[in-house]
Every structure is written in structure tokens, then in C-alpha cells.
Hints:
This protein is mainly alpha-helical. Helices cover 44% and strands 8% of the residues. The chain has three helices and two strands, in the order αβααβ. The protein has a two-stranded parallel ribbon with strand order 1-2. The two termini are 14 Å apart.
Amino acid sequence: MEVVYSTVKGGQESFVKAYAKEVASLGITVNLIAPGAVHTQMNHLLTTEDYHLLTQEIPLNKLATPLDIAYGVLFLSSKQAEYITGITLPIDGGWKG
Length: 97
């Protein structure tokens, strides 16, 4: 499944860069949030060992919370980010999984 995942991820990033240029003259910004591992119900399926191995790969040694991701969305939706467009914002604790 890595090939499909990587292809879609690359497509999203290319779309954001192209569309941001296309609509910039209208005052519209287009950005992408790229979350890393997030502590959600899905992670409850991981064994304790798998969870530990995953967090060891993340430099901050923990999974993001849904709020960590929401803060990034909130920022990019704010007036303070009105000059930011066409970017991918990784919220991944330093993990480039």
C-alpha cells in the first residue's frame, strides 16, 4: 500500500502548488496539512510493542493529538497566514514517515 499512499500524497502536494498559483489573484490561499501519526481510535489496534516502536521513530517520541493537527488548520485559516499559499505543512513531530 506504500505505492498508492505515496502517489496520492505526491498528487495532493502537486495539486496544492498548482491550484494556489491559479487562484492567488482572487485572494484565495490553498495549503496542505500533512499529519504524521495521530493518536486516534485506529491506533488502539496496535500492540503495545508496535506503538512503542512507532513512537521511537518520531523525534518528539509521541504521536500527535487531534488538537495538534487542528492548531495547524486554525493557523492556516487565520488572518496571520494570509500570505502563505501553496505549501505543505507537516505536523509530524519531526517524523518523515
